[in-house]
Amino acid sequence: MAHTFEELVEKQRAADQARARVKEMRDALGAPAHEPWTEVQTETYETAWRAWRDLSRDVQAAMGEYAKDEGLDRAEVVADVERATGDSSDPAGD
């Protein structure tokens, strides 16, 4: 599937929003080892985490496809998307 740069930026923004939601929930609920979560809290958190994971996976795959289709270096595409979204965070975590 062909992607445009603008689509990559939108996909990254969606992944960033999902990541922020997971972080908000973790901050609000605390660590489950310290304060046990209810079943609903656990399910809600896991759903949000899966959404973040899936969106992140999809944008990473799309950036790889875009780089290949355009004959660009993948790392440059990732950096360009990060600049466009204003995301300078660590891609591995928080």
What is the makeup of the main sheet? none
* Number of individual domains: 1
Number of helices: 3
Cα distance spanning the termini:
30 Å
Written description of the protein model:
The chain has helices at 5-29, 39-70, 74-85. It is 73% helix and 0% strand. The two termini are 30 Å apart. It is built from three helices and no strands. The chain has one domain (5-85). It is an all-alpha fold and 94 residues long. The longest helix has 32 residues, at 39-70.
Report a brief summary of the structure.
The protein has 94 residues and is mainly alpha-helical. It has helices spanning 5-29, 39-70, 74-85.
Question: Which key phrases capture this entry?
Answer:
94 residues; mainly alpha
Itemize the secondary structure elements and their pairings.
Blueprint: H1 5-29, H2 39-70, H3 74-85
